[in-house]
Amino acid sequence: MGFMDDLKKAGKNLSRALKDITGAPFVKEMCGTAANMYRLGWDERNGGNISYLLDEKEVTEYIDLNEVIRTIPLMGVNAADFDVTPLIGKIFIVTGTGKYFKNVEDDPENNLGIVRIAADGKGVELLWGFADGGRPTSEFPAHLMSHMARLKVDPENRVVMHSHPTNTLAMNFVHELDEKKFTHTLWEMCTECIVVFPDGVGILPWMLCGTDEIGRATAKKMEEFRLVVWAMHGIYGAGKTMDETFGLIETVEKAAQIYMLTAHLPRVNTIKDEEMLQLVELFKVKCRKDFLNLK
Fold it and tell me: Which of 34, 186, 222, 271 has its CA 20 to 30 A from that of 19?
């Protein structure tokens, strides 16, 4: 048997060794989370996006990292212009631009893509997905900026999630958009809130989406918050896992729902700041004490 035959045999063995990517945990997580977000009404039409920094060793079980399908320019609505150097060579699974979350579970290969940040930092190498010619969400530059910010704070933060939760959005129109006041109101709504997001919620004023400017502003907030509200638009969340990140947004949305159900009624009872402090001490979390009104 000649050298070329050996190469062909090796290639066939490699192909047989690769697992079915539709069964990969990271693909299933993306599908399940997108389905849940759509079902809850957080991501109408093509609203919302998710990106997930993957472990390269795990990815190699499912795809050949030497096979680049095509290179896609790194862009939002316009060409992106920011330093992505810390993420060069990193691999992400990300939702596609113009894609509907309701379709992700049934057709992941068209609605999701696995991409690697190219060596020049100007584009991404498509390794799997976007089979219909698609590309990453227009918010991907904003995601990458947030990934870089959160990885500096916690190297285990691997997920960035953006959605349009109904009650959180509604609260934007009737509540003062002050980070301390907004966070404090949410903490008052459910006993669990100060434990789930003790670092509070950052807030940006309305800004044009799909641009580097909103990406940079979000990343700056992500240096101190895992949750950032885009006023009159939606919310960004970051976390270690898909469940944690989803749970952060889910808890804010539940608190916002309770607020919207009660805001027009006289307040008879509330969780006092001293009681919130007891929760912080019991669960040993580090909270923004400057967001509490302690005597």
Answer: 34
